[in-house]
């Protein structure tokens, strides 16, 4: 009877081992699962990096456009007065070139008075 009990116990242990072994995934399944997980991780990281780069590029271009728009608005609003543009410690005063052209046209349209010389005043006094 003891031999029979031992036999059944050993068969029972063998069946449990083989049943337990069947529940474990094979090495091939584990490798495929790891490959899929790493591929998904790579795709997600790549998408995140592209998203960040696109946001940075969009922000840069939007900031550049905003800066140019502010400079153009300042040039129009100053009414031919210089306006200051600065970056950190550097400071520059700008003037709209239309104002310079208008001032040059006004100066050339006005006739310049002849400078009075002592000889001219003596001739005019004798007449």
Structural features, described:
With 127 residues, the chain is mainly alpha-helical. The chain has two domains: 77 residues; 31 residues, no CATH class. The protein contains four helices and two strands; from the N terminus they run H-H-E-E-H-H. Strands 1-2 form a two-stranded antiparallel ribbon. Strand 1 and strand 2 form a beta hairpin. The longest helix is centred in the middle third of the chain and has 51 residues. The radius of gyration is 45 Å and the shape is rod-shaped. The protein starts with a helix and ends with a helix. The C terminus is likely disordered.
Broad shape:
rod-shaped
Which structural class do the helices and strands define? mainly alpha
Termini separation comes to 162 Å
Described by strand count, sense and barrel closure, the largest sheet is: 2 strands, antiparallel
**Helix share of residues?**
over 70%
How do the helices and strands follow one another from N- to C-terminus? HHEEHH
**How many beta-strand runs?**
2
Q: What's the tally of helices?
A: 4
Strands of the widest sheet, in order across it, are: 1-2
Percent strand equals 5-15%
Our count of domains comes out at 2
Radius of gyration: 45 Å
* Low-confidence region ranges: 121-127
């Amino acid at each position: 009877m003891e031999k029979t009990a031992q036999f059944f116990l050993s068969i029972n242990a063998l069946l449990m081992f083989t049943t337990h072994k069947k529940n474990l995934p094979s090495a091939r399944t584990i490798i495929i699962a790891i490959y899929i997980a790493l591929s998904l991780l790579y795709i997600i990281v790549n998408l995140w990096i592209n998203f960040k780069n696109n946001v940075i590029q969009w922000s840069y271009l939007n900031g550049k456009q905003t800066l140019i728009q502010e400079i153009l608005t300042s040039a129009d609003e100053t009414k031919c007065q210089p306006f200051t543009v600065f970056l950190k410690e550097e400071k520059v005063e700008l003037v709209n070139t239309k104002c310079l052209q208008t001032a040059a046209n006004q100066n050339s349209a006005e006739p310049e008075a002849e400078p009075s010389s002592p000889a001219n005043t003596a001739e005019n006094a004798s007449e």
